[in-house]
């Protein structure tokens, strides 16, 4: 025989043992995978929590949005000048140089410059925000009470700077050289005005600052230039005074002493050469004269007079030779010719002596000139030595004068550059778009807030739904009962409202009015489950862990259902405190009940009340019942149940809840089978565990657990068991 889940609860000899509340392994978890259907079912179960949290977050978001102050953003745009054209170049090199293109770091730096404290302070001063009453310190401020005059305005200026710095922002427009300046304010007019002020301060204000700086620089340089000019003049005058004082006069070719020495050197050289030449000529002439050749003196031969005389001497010598050969030595013509020749020779000798005397005189003059020039050269050299000693001081003065003149020239060139460029300054940035007055507020952004609230609400709603489900301790499905508690699940009893097609009805009456309904079928299913899970169980106790779980209604409806099938059924009201079955019966005041039968003051037949609709026999509790629980749990109850077992096919006992009433456990021990009813999704799992833990295993025979008051319209969200397909077979009960 194959063992099934039902066999787990069966026991030999027709006794059903009570099973401990030990949970079994979850089959879904054993597959080691995520069951998407379970997750969706879990979400469907908690869709109300999800929607509640979602709507709550949306409501809070809308309230926050409504309470947030309306702020407006105005945006102005400026662009950096990537190529500044030089208007007044200072040199030829400036014409060929290309202006540098702004780098990435330069653009980022300019973004920081726009929102810098200095630029913000300039905007505050330009707009006069220090006089705005909003930024004025409170009149009763203790710190400002003893402050110095003007400190209040400084505090207002600082407050205005802090206000602008907190609300202004600048960022680069993409990868361009454009910068967007945004200002946020509650006043749209103010937002546009301040955004434009920041843009103007960065463009026109920066240009004006550049011009002012250039003018200030020109003024400073002009003052310094005059000082340097005076210094250069003083240093140059000191050089000239030193030259004069130390006879260091010079021309472009050097000092006068140096020029004089150079001239003396040249003249001495020429005089020495001339003297040597004259001495040599004189010496040569004297040697020739001593050699006996008066006419052969070289210098004499150069004389034109001697040349003429020599020509006459040659003619007379020729004539004398001719006459001597023709006439004798004593001939008068020969004597006359000889006399003429001797006279010419004497004249030549005299002229030669005169030439030698001239050479001697010239040699003496050349030597004297050489001596004079040599003396002058020595004197000039002595003066030059003195000048060279004084030159050290002159060099120092000249260096000072050159430095002063160079510095003066540098400042003069710079001054010329600044004066040439004055008025030609160009702005580093231009206004691209002025800020318009915003029409719509930038904050709060209703759409963004709604989307954020929707996203946050969805996330929190899902988290709340799953958290609620994870912390939920109620029992929803038969699978919960069997897996988490380890006890048998019998059936689910729906609420009448979830399955009834007509208006409000009493469950006990609806059972008979519509016997083919799912409500009536659930009790037949309960009866079948009890029969299948027990053997010859004649006395059935219906109990619960806590009150208000549908125990009495289940007892009445199960008894009427079994009685309507033709069985002889006895329903006993065993709840001495609530007397739920007895209240079901209308009237019957003064009639004896269970306690009177147990006490022996009335017979069983006298106390029974018969349901005319089904023939069900009911043993209620009398209205004047005194709580004597020892009768219900004692031998008197055993004898009553033995009698009922002989007269009826089944006895159903509606007992008190197990947890609050201890006697209920003793009464359960007298039944052949006990059925726990659990209210769907209301009874805590821990309560049922505690109740089952109190039941002795060897004294109480547990048939199983039934779910009561199940909402069949919602149950498909929670279950994949027999009730999950109710919509599919709902028409079967029509």
Characterization of the model:
The chain is α/β, with parallel strands linked by helices and 734 residues long. Helices cover 57% and strands 10% of the residues. An eight-stranded mixed beta sheet has the order 7-14-13-8-12-9-11-10, sandwiched between helices. A four-stranded antiparallel beta sheet has the order 2-3-1-6. Strands 4-5 form a two-stranded antiparallel ribbon. Strand 2 (168-172) and strand 3 (178-185) form a beta hairpin. The two termini are 38 Å apart.
Which features characterize this protein?
alpha/beta, disordered N terminus, non-specific protein-tyrosine kinase, cell membrane, 8-stranded mixed beta sheet, transmembrane, nucleotide-binding, 734 residues
Radius of gyration: 71 Å
Number of strands: 14
Low-confidence segments, given as residue ranges, are: 1-31, 95-99
Class computed from helices, strands and strand pairing: alpha/beta
Q: Per DSSP, what share of the residues sits in E-state strands of 2 or more residues?
A: 5-15%
Helix content: 55-70%
Number of helices: 27
> What best-fitting shape do the alpha-carbon axes yield?
rod-shaped
State the end-to-end CA separation. Answer: 38 Å
In short:
This protein has 734 residues and is α/β, with parallel strands linked by helices. The protein is built from 27 helices and 14 strands.
Write the layout of secondary structure elements.
Layout: H1 27-30, H2 36-45, H3 47-67, E1 72-80, H4 92-96, H5 104-114, H6 117-127, H7 142-145, H8 151-167, E2 168-172, E3 178-185, H9 188-245, E4 250-251, E5 254-255, H10 256-290, H11 298-301, H12 304-326, H13 332-421, E6 429-433, H14 446-471, H15 478-485, E7 489-494, H16 496-499, H17 507-513, H18 518-533, E8 539-544, H19 551-564, E9 569-574, H20 580-584, H21 594-599, H22 604-607, E10 609-610, E11 617-619, H23 629-633, H24 635-647, E12 650-655, H25 663-668, E13 673-679, H26 685-694, E14 702-710, H27 726-729
Parallel strand pairs: 7-14, 8-12, 8-13, 9-11, 9-12, 13-14
Antiparallel strand pairs: 1-3, 1-6, 2-3, 4-5, 10-11
Helix pairs in contact: 3-14, 6-8, 6-9, 9-13, 10-13, 12-13, 17-19, 18-19
């Amino acid at each position: 025989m194959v063992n099934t889940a039902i066999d787990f609860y069966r026991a030999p000899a027709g006794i059903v043992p009570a099973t401990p509340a030990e949970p079994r392994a979850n089959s879904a978890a054993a597959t080691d995978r995520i069951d998407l259907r379970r997750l969706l079912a879990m979400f469907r179960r908690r869709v109300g929590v999800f929607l509640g949290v979602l709507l709550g977050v949306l409501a809070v978001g809308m309230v926050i949005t409504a309470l947030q102050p309306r702020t407006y953003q105005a945006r102005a745009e400026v662009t950096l000048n990537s190529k500044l054209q030089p208007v007044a170049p200072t040199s030829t090199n400036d014409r060929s140089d290309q202006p540098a293109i702004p780098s990435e770091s330069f653009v980022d730096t300019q973004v920081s410059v726009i929102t810098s404290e200095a630029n913000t302070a300039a905007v505050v001063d330009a707009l006069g925000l220090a006089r705005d009453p909003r930024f004025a310190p409170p009149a009763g401020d203790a710190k400002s009470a003893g402050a110095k005059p003007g400190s209040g305005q400084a505090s207002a200026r600082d407050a205005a700077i802090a206000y602008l710095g907190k609300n202004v922002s600048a960022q680069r427009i993409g990868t361009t050289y454009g910068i967007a300046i945004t200002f946020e304010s509650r006043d749209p007019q103010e937002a546009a005005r301040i955004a434009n002020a920041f843009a103007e301060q960065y463009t026109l204000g920066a240009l004006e600052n550049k011009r002012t700086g250039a003018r200030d620089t020109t003024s400073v340089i002009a003052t310094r230039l005059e000082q340097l000019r005076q210094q250069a003049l003083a240093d140059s005058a000191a050089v000239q005074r030193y030259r004069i004082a130390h006879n260091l006069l010079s021309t472009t070719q050097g000092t006068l002493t140096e020029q004089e020495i150079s001239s003396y050197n040249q003249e001495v050289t020429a005089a020495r050469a001339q003297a040597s030449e004259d001495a040599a000529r004189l010496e040569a002439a004297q040697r020739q004269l001593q050699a006996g050749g008066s006419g052969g003196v070289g210098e004499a031969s150069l004389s034109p007079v001697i040349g003429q005389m020599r020509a006459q001497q040659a003619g007379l010598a020729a004539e004398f030779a001719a006459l001597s050969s023709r006439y004798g030595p004593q001939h008068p013509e020969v004597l006359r010719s000889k006399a003429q020749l001797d006279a010419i020779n004497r004249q030549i000798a005299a002229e030669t002596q005169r030439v030698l005397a001239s050479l001697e005189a010239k040699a003496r003059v050349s030597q004297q000139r050489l001596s004079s020039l040599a003396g002058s050269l020595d004197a000039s050299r002595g003066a030059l030595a003195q000048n060279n000693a004084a030159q050290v001081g002159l060099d120092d003065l000249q260096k000072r004068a050159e430095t002063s003149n160079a510095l003066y020239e540098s400042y003069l060139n710079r001054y010329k550059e600044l004066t040439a460029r004055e008025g030609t300054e160009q702005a580093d940035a231009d206004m691209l778009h002025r800020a318009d007055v915003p029409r719509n507020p930038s904050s709060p952004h209703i759409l963004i807030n709604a989307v954020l609230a929707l996203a946050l609400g969805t996330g929190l709603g899902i988290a709340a739904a799953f958290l609620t489900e994870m912390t939920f301790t109620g029992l929803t499905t038969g699978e919960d009962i069997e897996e988490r508690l380890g006890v048998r699940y019998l059936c689910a009893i729906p609420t009448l409202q979830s399955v009834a097609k007509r208006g409000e009805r009493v469950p006990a009456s609806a059972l008979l009015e519509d016997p083919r309904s799912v409500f009536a079928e659930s009790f037949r299913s309960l009866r079948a489950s009890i029969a299948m899970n027990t053997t010859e169980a004649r006395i059935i106790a219906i109990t619960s862990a806590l009150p208000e779980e549908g125990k009495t209604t289940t007892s009445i409806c199960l008894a009427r259902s079994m009685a309507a099938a033709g069985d002889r059924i006895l329903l006993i009201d065993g709840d001495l405190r609530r007397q739920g079955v007895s209240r079901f019966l209308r009237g019957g005041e003064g009639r004896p009940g269970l306690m009177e039968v147990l006490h022996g003051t009335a017979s069983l037949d006298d106390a029974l009340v018969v349901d005319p609709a089904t023939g069900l026999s009911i043993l209620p509790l009398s209205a004047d019942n005194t709580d004597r629980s020892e009768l219900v749990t004692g031998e008197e109850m055993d004898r009553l149940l033995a009698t009922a077992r002989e007269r009826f096919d089944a006895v159903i006992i509606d007992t008190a809840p197990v947890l609050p009433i201890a006697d209920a456990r003793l009464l359960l021990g007298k039944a052949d089978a006990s059925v726990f009813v659990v209210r769907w999704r209301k009874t805590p799992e821990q309560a049922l565990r505690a109740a089952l833990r109190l039941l002795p295993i060897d004294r109480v025979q547990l048939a199983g657990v039934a779910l009561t008051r199940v909402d069949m319209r919602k149950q498909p969200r929670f279950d994949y068991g027999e009730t999950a397909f109710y919509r599919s077979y709902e028409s079967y009960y029509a």
